[in-house]
Design goal:
Blueprint: H1 3-29, H2 38-41, H3 45-49, H4 53-56, E1 62-65, E2 71-78, E3 82-89, E4 91-99, E5 102-110, E6 119-124, E7 130-136, E8 143-150, E9 153-160, E10 163-166, E11 172-173, H5 185-192, H6 209-221, E12 225-227, E13 231-233, E14 239-241, E15 250-251, E16 257-258, E17 266-268, H7 270-286, H8 292-295, H9 307-311, H10 319-336, H11 343-347, E18 356-357, E19 375-376, H12 380-390, E20 394-403, E21 411-423, E22 429-435, E23 438-440, H13 442-448, E24 453-460
Parallel strand pairs: 12-17
Antiparallel strand pairs: 1-2, 2-3, 3-6, 4-5, 6-7, 7-8, 8-9, 9-10, 9-11, 10-18, 13-14, 15-16, 19-24, 20-21, 20-24, 21-22, 22-23
Helix pairs in contact: 7-10
Length: 473
């Protein structure tokens, strides 16, 4: 082979080498867009991860840059029984700084422990043994992987807002614990692909346009709404009692009956408010609003000789659940042209997504869905996070099971709400909540209903949503 041919072959091999090197860099640093400190951690094993714990106290935090310019800080923090080594990516945030003229905002680097891409190693304070690794891979610091060493095995948890999607006692990882020190996120993803339900936590922003549009339209109408006990509008827009479906009649100061003049306002109770919203989906398709009789039909069959069976003869124990189930079923029926014989099975959120909770005193069976009862409210944040990932086009009608006003020791479904869970453009989870004609932050909604159960019904969001009849062509 002549010299020209040899030089050509060398050039080809050089090009191939560069291509494969670039591919490896892309795989390590850019797959899924998660900042990856694998390259940096390879230099930290002896100095930080396996060194004598007596040396950790003498170490100062350092900022290290990887080959593609991403900066990470390595530092040690002392906890109750652990030394915690944190390798966290740099994020630039606006910080308010007091000046002589008042204040100004400056851009400052921050290295948060729970930032997307953070690697956190816990070591025993006494002997330095590794205790666990937390790996943060999403925009929400409440969602992470947790790895535990156990002899030659490594176990893994997936934590979603204090809820365990998988638990270390039964899910071993096919890797020794020390391999995690230098693993990339792509390695972790590959090693756990068969045991971690990644579909529950793989956030894809931009899928919530119809849902957010609906929530905005509802918000704009809230000034028109006045809470009114039993208030609900029938298919003819007559204000009726949601319990009897009969027009509401009031008495004036002289004791005479009269029909209330709402004067452009909407007089609605909790369930009437939800019907008004679902009518905004149903009427553009069917041309008519729902009948009150159709949304208050019983959906729970109690054993006549059971405690609830006896109580249900005098009180409606499942009223809110009946209403939200029927509303969701009617919305499904209209949009699917009645193709489902058992629509309740389609609209009930009834899957068991979790196996437990961190730091919880709940009994084991309360981690799961319970028929005609729902989920403990402590699980609602994690539950909606998962639902927003696996069925992003749906919002949820919620029936809330509280202590009875008549008998505090008995529980009844007597309140309802509507929930719009979504991820913003930065991948952060949030949820818009409406209840009784008011809008709440998700955290405030949770505080309003401690110790309750929540039963959810799914409804598909739509851009063809009209709360004002004049807007329907």
């Amino acid at each position: 082979m002549n010299l020209l041919g040899k030089n050509l072959i060398k050039k080809v091999f050089c090009i191939l080498f560069l291509v494969f090197s670039a591919a490896n860099l892309f795989s390590e640093y850019n797959s899924k867009g998660i900042p990856d400190s694998a390259e940096i951690r390879r230099t930290l094993v002896r100095e930080w991860f396996t060194c004598p714990v007596s040396e950790l106290k003498t170490k100062d935090s350092r900022v290290i840059e990887n080959n593609i310019g991403q900066r990470f800080q390595v530092r040690m923090e002392e906890r109750l029984d652990s030394y915690v080594i944190i390798v966290s990516p740099e994020n630039i945030m606006k910080v308010k700084v007091i000046t002589d003229d008042g204040y100004e905002f400056i851009k400052s680097p921050v290295y948060s422990e729970g930032a997307c891409g953070s690697f956190v190693l816990y070591r025993n304070k006494v002997n330095g043994a590794p205790q666990k690794i937390q790996w943060f891979f999403n925009a929400d610091s409440e969602v992470y992987l947790e790895f535990y060493p156990s002899g030659a095995k490594t176990y893994v948890d997936l934590v979603i807002y204090s809820c365990y999607a998988i638990r270390k006692v039964s899910v071993p990882l096919g890797s020794t614990f020390d391999r995690l020190y230098t693993a990339s996120f792509n390695d972790i993803y590959r090693w756990t692909s068969s045991i971690v339900p990644w579909e529950k936590v793989t956030v894809v922003p931009g899928q919530y346009k119809e849902m957010l549009l609906m929530s905005i339209l509802i918000s704009k109408e809230l000034p028109k709404i006045k809470y009114f006990d039993q208030g609900c509008y029938n298919e003819d827009d007559t204000l009726c009692s949601i319990f009897t479906a009969k027009p509401i009649v009031l008495k004036d100061s002289d004791g005479n009956d009269y029909y209330p003049d709402t004067k452009g306002m909407l007089w609605l109770d909790s369930e009437g408010f939800l019907k008004w919203i679902i009518d905004g989906i149903v009427k553009p398709i069917s041309g008519t609003k729902l009948k009150i009789e159709d949304i208050t039909r019983p959906t729970v069959n109690y054993n006549e000789i059971s405690k609830n069976g006896v109580l249900s003869q005098d009180w409606s124990l499942s009223f809110s659940l009946d209403v939200v189930r029927n509303l969701a079923s009617c919305a499904l029926d209209v949009r699917s042209y009645g193709m489902y014989e058992e629509p309740f099975k389609m609209v009930d959120v009834a899957a068991n997504y979790f196996v437990g909770m961190k730091k919880s005193n709940l009994k084991p069976n309360t981690f799961f869905y319970m028929k005609d009862i729902g989920y403990k409210i402590e699980m609602l944040n994690g539950l909606l996070y998962v639902l927003a990932n696996i069925e992003p086009s749906y919002f949820y009608l919620a029936a809330i099971r509280n202590s009875s006003n008549v008998k505090a020791e008995e529980f009844v479904f007597n309140q309802s709400a509507i929930l719009f869970p979504y991820f913003d453009d930065n991948g952060h989870f949030d949820c818009v909540v409406f209840e009784k004609g008011k809008e709440y932050s998700f955290s405030d909604f949770m505080k309003l209903h401690p110790g309750t159960y929540i039963h959810l019904e799914r409804v598909k969001s739509t851009e063809y949503f009209f709360l004002n009849d004049d807007d329907i062509e």
